[in-house]
């Protein structure tokens, strides 16, 4: 049978992207809902056939322990609530899927990992691009040697935040600005395309602090990362301009993902050796990356394998983002362990 997910947080991403993707999944189903708003529990409970016995408030949350229909808890809350609900879910004996960015700090990430380990349950971070055919193909091309030695990765990710962007513009709930929310896609792609971990980062914060959107969080963050192979990455993250692309350039060509990590419409181009740039975009099924992400955790659990984007993967990104913020604040490079 399909494994049952409890969806925690019935906001934009949960209700508009995640929940409608279950119909395309093979081994996952919506088993329960958790919300502080009774009207949402009623509306989505009816829409997704979730019985009233399987609808929870935040006060009731720990009672999920007694519900064997719930195998996995999917945390789709503001970042400041990720650690608390992931840890409570682990303690209730459930596997956890937690949205990106994993948590407010590396310390919080580690406590989530520890709670899952103590409960002998899996923890997976919602890095959907790892299940999207063009990103999967881009990784294979990067590993194939077709573009020669990796030299430069560059990426720009951003959108124009509005004053209505809610918790995202409040550092106490988001942990940071554009880098935590959208720049993280470029950082994660740098790591999965290069297949190595950065040793040093230098970052510049270019935020207009008189802009009312950016009282507590950064707008533009420009970061340069150095990798052990000699490759470098340049990342632009923005809350005031639109971008969504990455490119890995090597001695013999490049892999260009533009757009790279949106919900749909990825395009992939390859230049290898003397070959002209050609379109190598893969066909993508409806909501394929979301369904693939939802199916991956049940499969990993059944097969007794670790999922491919565990807590350690989320922690690695948060550690680097903390180093970026420190570098920007101190105006000097920061070494990574
Ligand atoms: P949202 O504001 O639309 O939803 C957040 C939900 O949390 C709301 O339903 C809100 O009512 C609920 N909530 C509970 N307690 C709250 C509190 N104290 N304050 C504020 N809200 C509270 O946000 P979203 O866009 O759905 O983002 C939710 C999570 O999903 C975030 O971690 C975000 O980074 C992630 N996300 C991921 C992707 C992706 O592509 N992987 C895309 C968008 C969002």
TrEMBL record:
<dbReference type="InterPro" id="IPR050463">
    <property type="entry name" value="Gfo/Idh/MocA_oxidrdct_glycsds"/>
</dbReference>
<dbReference type="Pfam" id="PF02894">
    <property type="entry name" value="GFO_IDH_MocA_C"/>
</dbReference>
<dbReference type="InterPro" id="IPR008354">
    <property type="entry name" value="Glc-Fru_OxRdtase_bac"/>
</dbReference>
<feature type="domain" description="Gfo/Idh/MocA-like oxidoreductase C-terminal">
    <location>
        <begin position="144"/>
        <end position="336"/>
    </location>
</feature>
<protein>
    <submittedName>
        <fullName>Glucose-fructose oxidoreductase</fullName>
        <ecNumber>1.1.99.28</ecNumber>
    </submittedName>
</protein>
<keyword id="KW-0560">Oxidoreductase</keyword>
<dbReference type="InterPro" id="IPR006311">
    <property type="entry name" value="TAT_signal"/>
</dbReference>
<dbReference type="InterPro" id="IPR000683">
    <property type="entry name" value="Gfo/Idh/MocA-like_OxRdtase_N"/>
</dbReference>
<feature type="domain" description="Gfo/Idh/MocA-like oxidoreductase N-terminal">
    <location>
        <begin position="4"/>
        <end position="127"/>
    </location>
</feature>
<keyword id="KW-0732">Signal</keyword>
<dbReference type="InterPro" id="IPR004104">
    <property type="entry name" value="Gfo/Idh/MocA-like_OxRdtase_C"/>
</dbReference>
<dbReference type="Pfam" id="PF01408">
    <property type="entry name" value="GFO_IDH_MocA"/>
</dbReference>
<dbReference type="InterPro" id="IPR036291">
    <property type="entry name" value="NAD(P)-bd_dom_sf"/>
</dbReference>
<dbReference type="GO" id="GO:0047061">
    <property type="term" value="F:glucose-fructose oxidoreductase activity"/>
</dbReference>
């Amino acid at each position: 049978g399909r494994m049952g997910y409890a969806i925690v947080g019935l906001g934009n991403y949960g209700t508009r992207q995640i929940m409608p993707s279950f119909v395309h999944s093979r081994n996952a189903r919506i088993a329960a809902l958790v919300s502080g708003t009774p009207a949402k529990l009623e509306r989505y409970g009816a829409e997704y056939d979730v019985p009233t016995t399987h609808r929870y408030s935040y006060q009731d949350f720990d009672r999920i322990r007694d519900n064997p229909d719930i195998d996995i808890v999917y945390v789709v809350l503001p970042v400041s609530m990720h650690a608390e609900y992931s840890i409570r879910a682990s303690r209730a004996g459930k596997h956890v899927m937690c949205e990106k960015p994993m948590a407010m700090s590396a310390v919080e990430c580690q406590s989530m990992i520890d709670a899952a380990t103590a409960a002998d349950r899996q923890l997976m971070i919602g890095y959907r691009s790892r299940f999207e055919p063009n990103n999967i193909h881009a990784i294979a091309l990067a590993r194939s040697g077709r573009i020669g030695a990796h030299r430069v990765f560059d990426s720009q990710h951003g959108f124009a935040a509005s004053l209505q962007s809610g918790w995202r513009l409040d550092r106490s709930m988001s942990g940071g600005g554009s880098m935590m929310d959208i720049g993280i896609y470029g950082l994660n792609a740098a790591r999965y395309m290069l297949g190595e971990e950065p040793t040093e980062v230098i970052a510049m914060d270019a935020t207009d602090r008189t802009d009312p959107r950016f009282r507590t969080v950064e707008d533009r963050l420009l970061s340069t990362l150095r990798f052990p192979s000699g490759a470098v990455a340049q990342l632009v993250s923005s809350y005031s301009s639109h971008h969504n692309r990455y490119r890995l350039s090597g001695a013999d060509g490049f892999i260009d993902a533009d757009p790279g990590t949106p919900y749909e419409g990825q395009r992939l181009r390859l230049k290898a050796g003397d070959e002209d740039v050609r379109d190598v975009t893969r066909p993508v099924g409806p909501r394929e990356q979301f369904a693939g992400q939802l199916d991956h955790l049940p499969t990993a659990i059944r097969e007794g394998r670790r999922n491919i984007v565990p807590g350690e993967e989320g922690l690695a990104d948060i550690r680097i983002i903390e180093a970026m913020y420190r570098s920007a604040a101190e105006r000097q490079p920061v070494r990574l362990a």
